[in-house]
Amino acid sequence: MNIKEIKELSMKFTPQQIEQCINETLQNGKPLTEGCNPSGDILEVLNTLAKAQTVRELMDKGMSQIEAIRELARRIREIQSVK
User: pTM of this prediction?
Assistant: First the structure.
């Protein structure tokens, strides 16, 4: 998980704009929106964008960025532990 890119994207874009970047990536193989191009292959890009979108949604609900990142990490751990 590239925290630096998730932080930058969640501060710069709204959840709707990040959703647009995700759709562009799915359609074109990469996001076309300026500044919305995390590093990595297509799966890593989609993964980073989805995480940034979740962080931004939590921030819009009143969490600080660090609280939102911690909540995202908690959710990921919770899902990974259910096997």
Answer: 0.92
CA distance 49 to 11: 12
Task: Write down the domain spans for the chain.
Answer: 3-81
- DSSP-assigned states of every residue in 36-74: ---SSSHHHHHHHHHHHHHHHHHHHTT--HHHHHHHHHH
Per-residue pLDDT of the chain (83 residues; tens, 9 = 90+): 689 999 999 999 999 999 999 999 999 999 999 999 899 999 999 999 999 999 999 999 999 999 999 999 999 999 999 76
